[in-house]
Design a protein that fits this description.
heterodimer, A: alpha+beta, Immunoglobulin-like, Rossmann fold, 3 domains, six-stranded mixed sheet, five-stranded antiparallel sheet, 28% helix
Chain lengths: 432, 232
């Protein structure tokens, strides 16, 4: 971030200390005049002299530089604000002495979802303050209040400045293993496919045919069978992975809500699959529309995916259609990993529709909240019906061949995925 | 101005832990001094007791303001949350109380009421001078407690304060001088003379304070930059 200096106009006023001294001085003189008692005029003398001696040159403006250590961060990471101030005139040491006569106090008023780490205020012409975003989102860091005080703290010059924006990314969950499709597209990658190819994983032996490389001859097998045998290796392919984050409902405690878990899980999956040289894309499903990014490769794709996810916000708009997605967002044969609390019936219908169109879908259930338990019979009955509905939704998805695993956000994603990472996930044979 | 050396630091937990007892002791000293000086001003302005009913009311105001100031200085450091929604009623009442004691100008009220109480009973001039000195010290201690600064921050103001105390004594001496002529004119003339001396000193003070040594350091030598101190 560039180190831009901003000139701030100062609004000067008496400090609280000066107002108290002024009260004493005026009250003393007033009472002395009214009561004709000179000792009360003497009572005003110390305060009056302090006020008179403390007068100084008030700079009309101050040059302030505010720089954040980063404009992008993950949840829970610390952002340092580097603050510096200078005279607007000839600068430090210009001989006017105003810089030495004044002290600067910085007070940061953090924006929504940001907490100061340690002190929220600091003194000095240069200072550093720490902020920590508690939740993902795109927001301003807050506002900065600059107070210039004279040497005796009798007058204060106030100015306010808006702090820069911060993109806070959801903190990716831990995921090291991956679910791989059984049938992979014919594209070089790192996942061993069922077909033979030029990979590194041993797949079997076959009889030598002219043209085979001599180094691939399996001599022990050739000795046993009496004919030349060559090793065969599995082809290594990559897959298209589309992460589908359901942002239609955000339930649960802020910080560990369904949307929080969905985005953290999607970020973890994006990182894991991009590390495996897969093409990864993202779709955020929300009632304001669908944000998507087509599958791509590389580290930059990870940040592009998170940028798309940051735009998601839970809301409700009637008539949103999921069928308008272009082919680039959801390529045929893609492996769709869904992060959803499965609370919205239309989203569930969309999953069913996608399954019927032949996509291999894997649902990670991020619902970790329930309706509050209340003692009334009606409440208990409603809660029970709600639970049964949820079970029915998950059952119907499993019946369609869509695996549904639950994830509470506290454990690594590897644990719920473990039953599916040991062997390739069977690809649907339905039409696309 | 030496800004290069004046570098603020982020709050370092280790350094804060090591200096915590010293800082806490120093931080508690100024509020305690302010509270004691406020109580002393209230007591001093109340004696000798006056039989007037108004004096009792004003004394009540003085005590109320001193207590309010003491509460503000003792509890003012407790941070108030931005949102009190969803908090229980006792906690909301406690937060409302904390917010309420910060608003009124308790110290100004103490000063005004104490001086008024002093007028209500026939005190001798030296008694009023002592009260004025106590009130000035009370305001300075309150300022130190509010700002969190040490007593060393007052060192550059010592010459000015000494001049003020001299004028305070001079004012008391004016009052103790016998009147030349009976009547109000002589007393008024003494008051005007005292005020004139104070105003003259006040007008001369900005020029005197720029002379070497008056502000605690020689002319042309910049003040040593203060280290940035995290304050919450």
């Amino acid at each position: 971030m560039p180190d831009d200096r901003t000139e701030l106009a100062l609004h000067w006023r008496l400090s609280r200390h000066a107002r108290r001294l002024l009260t004493l001085a005026l009250a003393g003189i007033f009472i002395a005049t009214l009561a004709r008692r000179p000792e009360f005029a003497g009572a005003a003398a110390p305060a009056f002299l302090l006020l008179a001696a403390g007068r100084g040159i008030r700079p009309p403006a101050i040059s302030v530089s505010v720089r954040a250590s980063t404009s992008r961060t993950f949840e829970g990471e610390t952002v340092t604000l580097f603050l510096s101030a200078a005279d607007t005139g000839a600068g430090p040491g210009d001989g006017s002495g105003s810089g030495a006569e004044y002290t600067v106090r910085w007070t940061v008023h953090p924006g929504r979802g940001l907490d100061p780490v340690g002190a929220a205020a600091a003194d000095g012409w240069r200072a550093q303050l720490l902020l920590r975003p508690e939740r993902w989102g795109r927001r301003r860091l807050g506002t900065l209040e600059v107070v210039l005080r004279d040497r005796w703290r009798l007058t204060e010059g106030h100015a306010r400045l808006g702090l820069p924006r911060l993109d806070c990314y959801p903190h990716p969950a831990e995921q090291r293993t991956r679910v791989v499709l059984s049938r992979l597209p014919n594209r070089l990658g790192e996942h061993p496919a069922r077909s033979w190819g030029e990979g590194t994983e041993f797949a079997g032996v076959r009889e030598y045919v002219p043209g085979d490389r001599q180094r691939s001859i399996n001599w022990p097998a050739s000795t046993r069978r009496g004919r030349l045998q060559v090793n065969m290796f599995a082809a290594e392919r990559s897959q298209d992975v589309v992460l589908l984050a359901d942002a239609t409902s955000d339930v649960g405690e802020p910080g560990s809500s369904a949307l929080d878990l969905a985005l953290r899980g999607a970020a973890a999956a994006a990182r894991a699959y991009l590390d495996a040289r897969d093409r990864v894309g993202v779709i955020t499903y929300q009632w304001g529309g669908v944000n998507w990014r087509g599958p791509g490769l590389g580290k930059r794709q990870f940040y592009k995916i998170i940028d798309v996810m940051l735009a998601s916000d839970a809301g409700w708009v009637q008539g949103m259609s999921f069928r308008r997605l272009p082919r680039a967002a959801l390529p045929p044969g893609a492996f769709v990993i869904v992060f959803s609390p499965l609370l919205d019936q239309r989203f569930v219908e969309t999953l069913r529709d996608m399954r019927e169109r032949g996509f291999t879908i894997f649902v990670i259930d991020v619902l970790n909240a329930e309706p509050p338990a209340r003692p009334g019979i009606t409440d208990r009955l409603a809660r029970r019906i709600w639970k049964m509905e949820q079970e029915a939704i998950r059952f119907s998805l499993r019946e369609l061949g869509i695996p549904v695993v639950g994830w509470d956000g506290s454990q690594p994603l590897d644990l719920p995925l473990a039953p599916y990472t040991r062997r390739p996930l069977t690809h649907s044979g339905a039409r696309r | 101005m030496n800004q290069s050396a004046d570098s603020g630091r982020p709050p370092a937990a280790a350094a804060q832990t090591a200096r915590a007892p010293v800082v806490a002791k120093r931080a508690a000293r100024a509020p305690a001094a302010a509270i004691l000086l406020g109580a002393a001003a209230a007591v001093w302005s109340a004696i000798p007791g006056s039989p007037k009913a108004l004096a009792g009311i004003v004394l009540f105001v003085v005590v109320t303001c001193v207590v309010g100031s003491a509460l503000r200085l003792s509890l003012g450091w407790i941070p108030l949350p931005d949102s009190t929604f969803m908090l229980s009623v006792p906690i909301r009442a406690w937060l409302a109380f904390l917010g309420m004691i910060r608003v009124p100008p308790w110290e100004e009220g103490t000063v005004l009421a104490a001086l008024w109480l002093e007028v209500l009973h026939p005190a001798r001039p030296w008694h009023t001078a002592v009260l004025a000195a106590v009130l000035t010290a009370y305001l300075l201690a309150t300022h130190l407690a509010d700002s969190g600064a040490s007593a060393d921050a007052l060192r550059p103001q010592m010459p000015v304060l000494a001049a003020g105390v001299c004028l305070l004594a001079l004012g008391a001496a004016f009052a103790m001088l016998p009147a030349i002529t009976p009547g109000g004119g002589s007393a008024l003339l003494r008051v005007v003379a005292a005020i004139a001396v104070i105003i003259a000193a006040g007008l001369a003070m900005p020029h005197l304070s720029k002379r070497p040594g008056l502000s605690g350091r020689p002319a042309g030598v910049a003040r040593q930059p203060r280290r940035a101190t995290p304050a919450g």
